[in-house]
Amino acid sequence: VEETLVLIKPDGVVRNLTGEILRRIEAKGYKLVDIKLVEADRGRLGTHYEEHAGKPFYEPLLEFMESGPSVAIRVAGNRVIEGFRVLAGTTDPTTAAAGTIRGDLGRDWGLAVQQNLVHGSDSPESAERELALWFD
Length: 136
Ligand code: GTP
Ligand code: MG
Hints:
Radius of gyration: 14 Å
Shape: globular
Structural class: alpha+beta
Number of helices: 7
Bound molecules: guanosine-5'-triphosphate, magnesium ion
CATH architecture: 2-Layer Sandwich
Largest sheet: 4 strands, antiparallel
CATH topology: Alpha-Beta Plaits
Helix content: 40-55%
Order of helices and strands: EHHEHHEHHEH
């Protein structure tokens, strides 16, 4: 069965939305295989977001991700990689569809990085790489 890496980013943890986000994943029928609270260091975050190195939001993104703990979750289900990204909604919370995690719970705070509550792997290759990075 397919697996993906979901992160509840520091904004989701600080806003006490962990339970609400887990509820949505479970209500969809996906299985929580492993879960932990993580204070990620720069090394891990740099590897996680290496595709964005050099972009204007890259440094603010790493600073934001270092600002507090995230919840890392190994989630399993048929087509869960695509399915979780539909549950999450598009990157910008202002325009993410209502009914999605980002559309219902997120908004643009006018900061240098979009604080959009969650991360989900975007392909089978990313999922394999990211699960190895966050769950050794
Ligand atoms: P993730 O699931 O976190 O990877 O989000 P994503 O796949 O929807 O977005 P992407 O991988 O393109 O970008 C990673 C993260 O960088 C996003 O979730 C945002 O937090 C931030 N980000 C991406 N694009 C922008 C942008 O254009 N402006 C700003 N300010 N932040 C961005
Ligand atoms: Mg991404």
